[in-house]
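for the recovery benchmark. tokens below, seq after
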């Protein structure tokens, strides 16, 4: 027996089919969200080490030999790869701890030289005073020796 079911009005929605259709959409959306969430978790968990470097410690830039005798650390580079550079144009900024050490040693040497110079000036002044006093003492001794000799009349 074949029974044909016909609806009364095709524009009136069937409540049972509407419920099934809405429930099916919600379940599919929840299922897709769970599947894509798990997939995203694995992509982020295993793909992050490829994209981002992480770990404990401090980050420091490598030191490069720019010119003898200074080892410098590059602070910034103001030119881009392939760009044109004119003579005298700043291409970057560097810092050299070795250069700071050399300047400090130079300043210590200058201070030492200034101290020695002052010391030599004092010694020169003392020597000058001693030589004048010596000359004065010698002249006094000559006068004393002239006095101690008997006086001879001149003829």
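predicted aa per position
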């Amino acid at each position: 027996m074949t029974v044909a079911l016909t609806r009364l009005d095709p524009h009136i929605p069937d409540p049972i089919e509407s419920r099934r259709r809405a429930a099916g959409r919600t379940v599919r959306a929840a299922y897709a969200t769970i599947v894509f969430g798990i997939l995203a978790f694995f992509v982020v968990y295993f793909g992050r080490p490829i994209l981002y470097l992480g770990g404990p410690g401090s980050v420091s830039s490598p030191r490069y030999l720019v010119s003898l005798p200074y080892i410098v650390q590059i602070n910034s580079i103001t030119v881009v790869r392939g760009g044109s550079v004119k003579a005298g144009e700043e291409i970057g900024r560097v810092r050299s701890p070795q250069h700071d050490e050399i300047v400090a040693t130079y300043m210590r040497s200058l201070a030492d030289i200034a101290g020695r110079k002052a010391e030599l000036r004092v010694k020169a002044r003392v020597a000058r005073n001693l030589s004048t006093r010596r000359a004065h003492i010698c002249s006094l001794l000559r006068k004393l020796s002239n006095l101690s000799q008997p006086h001879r009349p001149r003829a």
